[in-house]
Amino acid sequence: MDKPLEGIRILDLSRILAGPWCSQHLADLGAEVIKVEHPERGDDTRGWGPPYPEGCKDAAYFMCANRGKRSVGVDIAHPEGQAVIRELVSTCDVVLENFKVGGLKRYGLDYQSLKEIKPDLIYCSITGFGQSGPYANRAGYDFLLQGMGGLMSITGHPDGAEGGGPVKVGVAVVDLFTGMYAATSILSALIGRGRTGEGTWIDISLLDVQVSMLANQAQNYLASGDSPGRLGNSHPNIVPYQAFASSDGHIILAVGNDLQFQRFCDVADVPLLASDERFSTNRKRVQNRDLLVPQLERLIRTKPSAFWLRALEKQGVPCGPINSIEQVFEDPQVRHREMQMKVSHPDSGRLSLVTSPVRFDNQKLTADQPPPGLGQHTREVLDELFPEEGYLDTLRSKGVVR
């Protein structure tokens, strides 16, 4: 199928996760993504292992965020490397970068400089704290921002409970959210340019994204003046909505409304619990959480997980297991949706990757090219711009390109 971003060219100067996650999504949607890397070191995540897929020189971490791109090795600290980048910019629709504030200005690769080359350029900057403010010059990392931005204050068990204390999310969720905010912003800017003919400079910060993704927890604070705390696996606004121990493991019970609670009580053979004035509505269940949850814990512990999952699903009560990642990829729904793909790779032969979750007209929008080797596409990309015989070889001999 024709992909929606075919014909759009992205010059990706970013590395690590937030920027590459953004550009990978755009590559899945059909954009041509040219990933610019240092000719010797490349993207830092190439070395963030083990594990390394069998036969590969690059870490699994790098593989998760760079499918479908072409890698060009250019030293942007070298004047001739900067000239190469400027030539590339003249052919691109979007520049994506995640350098520190002002980091690219000294190379003449900032928005104002590149706008002179391409007036309708869309330029997206991802930083830890934004282009302005007292923290603008600080470096920002996901773990740091999960703490500073409040996420860790609501993640983990309460102080005083067994295992209590702040906990980070198991993946770099601030980076991932930032990447998706950046992608949707770039797409919006492309639509806007199509209407006005003008480019724009997009300023996205990890801290801003983290604050925005506090969602209901932030609004809970703004509405009440009370800072939410850590509730372990419980939900601040819905009860019961948490993990429970069964007789042989754990299940997740996610009761979203009063009818579902009634159905749960029928399955658990305690119908009077649903009509108890203290628990008859979600509002009352939240208010009387400390009375209700211990009763549910005792009930659910009496039977194995398989009983609860089978019986509750039959009655339309949302529930599920707590799977390991191995179990996730064995799950029949995940298999049916083909969330794992295999692509040809020059080092490993066949490489397993996670696919994009996006589908248009029942067709997956996933780039079918593997993550690139460092500088794998330097010559084929730059030959288009510098056809003079021997020029690229001269740059390579100087260490400007790979």
UniProtKB/TrEMBL annotation:
Keywords: Transferase. One of its GO terms (molecular function) is CoA-transferase activity. It comes from the Bacteria. This is L-carnitine dehydratase/bile acid-inducible protein F. It comes from Marinobacter nitratireducens.
